[in-house]
From TrEMBL:
This is Adenosine 5'-phosphosulfate reductase. PANTHER family: PHOSPHOADENOSINE PHOSPHOSULFATE REDUCTASE. It comes from Corynebacterium yudongzhengii. It is found in: Cytoplasm. GO terms for biological process: hydrogen sulfide biosynthetic process; sulfate assimilation, phosphoadenylyl sulfate reduction by phosphoadenylyl-sulfate reductase (thioredoxin).
Length: 264
């Protein structure tokens, strides 16, 4: 009799790997040098208060002039504001898109459009260690239902961390108006690996964002005008009723409110 062994760590018959144990491979960013760590801390100590309520231009101008190393812009493709701001204030900055393999088709179309519209910004498509089908085989089908935190960790947090290794910091699209868990977020801070975390849209509202997209003729994610003000994976995102928290449709039906990207 021939025995089939799953070298990825799971096996047939429902005997799946513990989702708290990630696949083999790198799960965190490479450590920064002591020099960059010290300069990042100095940057935040110097500018955190000044930039707390600053406009995006001032935040990005300050980063361009004083950040101690290259930064990368993380984009969910829910909107393309960060790509436009980068072209204006941080030309040539890499763009990082986490391709979870669970995205809406429209999200992938936006990513393709960004790559064409902003050719001077390299678009990096980060993927999980396991493909979607491999994850089903190792951890059980539809892990996003049985353990959404583990699914987000393996398909978002860990790919982000691996791809942050060449950079002194990251720029994200965090907005305080997006919900109570973000209401007091700083414009600049240090993440768990000592990297800069910069949020130039921190004071923007959803209305500010839509107005900028319309006035500047930016690439539009069509679902944002169809009841999806916050867009994640298609399997875990529902439309939101008018007046609801913009992130109310994320992980609908569960107590989960964050994927972990903004807490690392």
């Amino acid at each position: 009799m021939t025995t089939s062994i799953n070298l990825l760590g799971g096996s047939g018959g429902g005997n799946y790997r513990d989702p708290e144990i990630s696949p083999e491979g790198q799960t965190t960013a490479d450590p920064l040098s002591e020099e960059i760590l010290a300069k990042n801390r100095e940057f935040v100590d110097t500018y955190a208060d000044e930039l707390y309520d600053a406009e995006a231009k001032k935040i990005l101008d300050t980063v361009r002039e004083h950040a101690p190393g290259p930064l990368v812009i993380t984009m969910s493709m829910e909107n393309t504001v960060l790509a436009e701001l980068s072209e204006r204030y941080l030309p040539g900055t890499d763009l990082l898109f986490l391709d979870t393999e669970y995205h809406f088709p429209e999200t992938l179309e936006v990513a393709d459009a960004v790559e064409k519209r902003y050719p001077n910004n390299r678009l990096i498509r980060a993927t999980a260690t396991l493909s979607r089908s491999e994850q089903d085989r190792v951890y059980g089908r539809d892990l996003y239902r049985s353990n959404p935190t583990a699914c987000c960790r393996m398909r978002k947090v860990e790919p982000l961390q691996r791809n942050l290794s060449p950079y002194a910091g990251m720029i994200d699209g965090l907005r305080r108006a997006d919900g109570p868990t973000r209401a007091h977020a700083p414009a600049v801070s240090i993440n768990k690996t000592g990297r800069l975390k910069v949020s130039p849209m921190i004071t923007w509202t959803l209305e500010d964002t839509d107005e900028f997209i319309d006035s500047e003729g930016l690439i539009l994610h069509p679902l944002t005008r169809q009841g999806y003000p916050s867009i994640g994976c298609a399997t875990c995102t529902m439309p939101v009723a008018e007046g609801e928290d913009p992130r109310a449709g994320r992980w609908a039906g569960s107590a989960k409110t964050e994927c972990g990207l903004h807490t690392e």
